[in-house]
Protein: Nitric oxide synthase-interacting protein
Amino acid sequence: MPQRHSKNNNDLAFFTYEEKRKLGYGTQRERLGKDSIKPFDACCLCLKPLIGPLCCPKGHTFCKECILECLLYQKKDIKRKLAAHEAQKKQEKEEEEEKLILQKAKELDAFDQQNHGAVPQYHDRRGSQDKNGFHGANNVNATSFEDEALRCMKAFWLPSATPEATVKVDVPSTDTVCPEGQEKLKLKSLFPISFTEETADQKSGKAVEKSYMCPSCKSTITNTMSLVAVSTCGHVFCKKCSDKFLVKDKACLECSKPFRERNLVPLEKGATGFAAHDERLVARDFKHLGSGSGLGLVKPAPKTY
Structure:
């Protein structure tokens, strides 16, 4: 009785469409869920709910302890790099002085060879060379040139003569940077922010976790909303209320504290495990089976998000 072997045939020189599907070849798409996106009230360093939140001028939020510890570690690292750079400069200066001394010794030896090369050497009865004698071309002892040749000999099979690659330390930057945006960041440029917590009557259902709202429109803040913080007082509003009231009134709707337009800092949305999502929440990845799989030497397509 005839049987169909189109889906389980494996003696071909190339992969069939069904076999490539089983191996997961091609572009795969996945919708990112809530667990893949950092909450708006989470620290960019520890990814936990904010404790004493601080915000940088670019809108990245951190816990106070996390960002202070990060900046302190950066300062210690800068201090260590500066010390290494100073040690390298000192070593280079010593090497330059050593080269000058060696160059002078070469010139003296060349002068000695030129003036006393034809004079015979004087030895004592034991056969050793006289200390006050001439050091001409007939000297059997190692000269400074031979010592330098032995020292600079590049013989990889001798551990003592193996050349070492010199690692140069560049001049480090003395500025601390934001761990999220990589822009220059100082401690005095950070400002505290505060979210308005919803009351028990405004919470929907029996939510155990804290929920926050916009002080102006009283809507619950979620990851889908764009937020704006006022750097003078630290209150956080939604983007709609900011464009409608804050930009025009130039005063905080919560504490009535005046501010300038430059004090409105839009908060950055939470990133995902793939990339900063912004408005696109679909992750795409292309799987390549490689050469020898019947697909030829086709280069894999770059990952797109």
Summary: Strands lie at 26-31, 53-55, 61-63, 191-192, 196-197, 212-213, 227-230, 236-238, 264-266, 282-287. The chain is about 25% helix and 10% strand. Confidence is low (pLDDT under 50) at residues 130-140, 291-305. The longest strand covers residues 26-31.
